[in-house]
Design brief:
The complex is a heterodimer of chains A (about 300) and B (about 300). Chain A has helices at about 1-30, 45-55, 60-75, 85-120, 125-140, 145-160, 175-200, 205-210, 215-225, 230-250, 260-270, 270-300. By secondary structure, chain A is mainly α. Chain B is an all-alpha fold and about 300 residues long. Classes of the chains: A mainly alpha (about 300), B mainly alpha (about 300). Chains A and B meet through helix 1, helix 5, helix 6, helix 10 and helix 11 of A and helix 6, helix 9, helix 10 and helix 11 of B.
């Protein structure tokens, strides 16, 4: 197990290096820079600005400077658009909001998805099964950027239960997290149902029943452990999806998170902020994928030998 | 085949018996029994025809503004209402459909081509080549591609061609894995060995025996890639990175509608419904095809 984790950790290093390097050079080869505004600055000011941010140095030197600062100080540099703020400060400011949104959404997805999926599998072809399938169908076919505005239209504007946008009180968390979590709840429900149906037919479930275990125990202690495996392997893509999905959700609900900041920074060509956010998101996704893989092997040791 | 004695009754349709059912007629038969998949297929055909020919039949154009009218609710003259510039929503929806469906098909074609060639190469050669090629796929799987597509669209202009090349370049990974797996499993099967043993040429084995067996999963996965691609296009358009005005795609219309939904609900509800209906149809047609062609690989 330890060797497995170590090997996977070693594999993530080239992936992360590739992401940083590719993004760094992609941004530099793009027409227009952070200081191209509608109101042109005089060449002297532009030169001073570039000298201040080190943009006048040769590209490779900038790259090594950046990598050095990143590796040895964890420093992502100053922001080009927000004068006097560093990328680290902006991320520290905005990331907790996005993490909170993502965590609640993932919680919603797992909670409702698992419950719906288990009920659908146990009460196969019953009313609950069809209800669960219908909910899952809506979640899969109605994208977040349609579902979100419609939920706002109905629950916030028509019924007046929630605020249409903002991120101030706990009640403001409901609509955005529900919108983002719904899609993944649907996938989780479908995968749980499939996984449970496969497991429930197996011999060890019959053995558990034969030994007199209660139905509740059979389902939640014996079957769920195997039935949940497809859900675990889906968690990697789901987390990546929730992270990128938050770009849209934060735009719809005007949430001051890192997702909205990333899209804005890309529009503003705020090189360092774009680079910083990409590195952060990529590392998050890569590391969470690693954790998911480890959990998967822990639950299903057969995978270790494949 | 036993010889039929004159005294035995002659089977009514001996040709039918000899031919049996081909894979495709059998799959077609099973698919046509799946009501929800048939519904999806019919909806898609109707929507596509409407998007291609509908705007030609309308007296409005997608860019004709009528500022005196402004945003008007659905009526006899404008069936789905008009937007704030007085443009007919139905025509804009159909023209937007051309873009959305077009991007969906083109990007899927890009993904299909890369994925099939890459996967078949890896599967066919096997060994070290295969290990190396699939290692690359594994690494690329770990990359946050949506973020890269956003960067590409921001930096290199919102160009439609770039849009579907970028999306296609993202979506080929799973196709490559599926094709490789299929080719690998088929290579060792008895019927390929049997085909070899009766002296069939390589080309005949590949085209008559391998391809028909790999085509099923490819078709299924293609049908399921199209909605994923359309979703990504709409996602980018919603962020303001897709198609630019006065052209519209469904993502753009949904974005506009979401901004104005408080006063003009129809601007959000109709594009949202049509888009969801399309995703629904494609997903269920894909599921139906998978059942019909009995593809064992899981969706993810």
């Amino acid at each position: 197990m330890f060797r497995f984790i170590a090997r996977r950790l070693l594999q993530t290093i080239p992936v992360l290096w590739f992401i940083v390097t590719a993004t760094f050079f992609m941004i530099r080869f793009v027409p227009g820079g952070p200081f191209t505004a509608e109101k042109a600055v005089t060449p002297e000011i532009l030169r001073n600005l570039e000298a201040h941010y080190g943009l006048d140095k040769p590209l490779y030197e900038q790259y090594f400077d950046y990598m050095g600062n990143l590796l040895f100080h964890g420093d992502l540099g100053p922001s080009f658009k927000y004068a006097s703020r560093t990328v680290n400060e902006i991320i520290a400011d905005k990331l907790p909001v996005s993490i909170e949104l993502g965590a609640i959404s993932l919680g919603i997805a797992l909670f409702f998805g698992l419950i719906l999926g288990v009920i659908a599998a146990v009460k196969r072809n019953s009313f609950f099964d069809y209800l669960a399938s219908s909910v899952a169908m809506i979640g899969i076919c109605v994208p977040t950027f349609v579902l979100g505005p419609i939920l706002v239209l109905f629950f916030a504007i028509h019924l007046g239960w929630f605020n249409a946008s903002g991120w101030y009180t706990n009640i403001d968390r409901v609509l955005p997290s529900a919108t983002l979590g719904m899609v993944y709840a649907a996938y989780v429900a479908r995968l749980t149902r499939g996984g449970m149906l496969e497991v429930l037919n197996q011999d060890y479930i019959r053995t558990a029943r034969a030994k007199g275990a209660s139905e509740f125990r059979v389902i939640f202690r014996h079957a769920l452990r195997g039935g949940i495996l497809p859900v675990i392997s889906f968690l990697g893509p789901a987390i990546a999806g929730i992270l990128t999905g938050s770009f849209v959700i934060e735009t719809i609900f005007q949430i001051p998170g890192l997702g909205r900041e990333f899209v804005n920074s890309a529009f503003n060509r705020d090189y360092t902020l774009v680079l910083g956010t990409v590195i952060l998101y990529a590392s998050l996704i890569v590391i969470l994928n690693l954790i998911v893989d480890v959990v998967q092997v822990w639950l299903n040791p057969k995978l270790k030998f494949e | 085949m036993p010889t039929i004695l004159p005294s035995e009754p002659i089977p009514e349709e001996p040709i039918e018996l000899e031919q049996g059912f081909s894979l495709w007629s059998d799959a077609w038969h099973r698919l046509s029994k799946n009501k929800i998949a048939v519904f999806g297929g019919v909806t898609l055909i109707v929507l596509t025809i409407a998007c291609i020919f509908g705007p030609l039949l309308s007296s409005y154009s997608y860019e004709d503004q009528n500022l005196n009218l402004g945003a008007s609710a659905p009526s006899m003259s404008h069936w789905l209402g008009t937007d704030t510039l007085g443009r007919d929503l139905l025509v804009r929806l159909l023209v937007g459909g051309r873009i959305s469906i077009g991007v969906g098909l083109c990007a899927t074609l890009v993904a299909l081509t890369i994925g099939v060639v890459y996967g078949a190469t890896a599967g066919f050669f096997g060994g070290k080549t295969d290990a190396f090629m699939m290692r690359i796929v594994d690494i690329m799987y770990a990359l946050p591609f949506t973020i890269f597509v956003i960067l590409l669209m921001v930096f290199f202009g919102r160009n439609i061609v770039l849009l579907f090349v970028a999306i296609g370049a993202v979506e080929w990974l799973t196709m490559a894995r599926i094709v490789r797996g299929q080719i690998m499993s088929i290579k060792k099967m008895e019927f390929i060995e049997a085909a070899r043993s009766i002296g069939l040429g390589k080309r005949r084995i590949i085209f008559r025996h391998m391809i028909p067996n790999v085509l099923g999963p490819i078709i299924v996965y293609t049908t399921l890639t199209i909605p994923a691609v359309m979703l990504l296009e709409a996602f980018l358009s919603f962020l303001g990175l897709g198609v630019q005005p006065p052209l519209s795609s469904w993502g753009v219309l949904i974005k506009d509608g979401a901004e104005k939904m408080e006063e003009f609900w129809w601007l959000l509800v109709f594009p949202g419904t049509i888009f969801s209906l399309t995703l629904f149809s494609l997903n269920f047609l894909g599921d139906g095809l998978r059942d019909a062609l009995d593809v064992r690989s899981s969706k993810d």
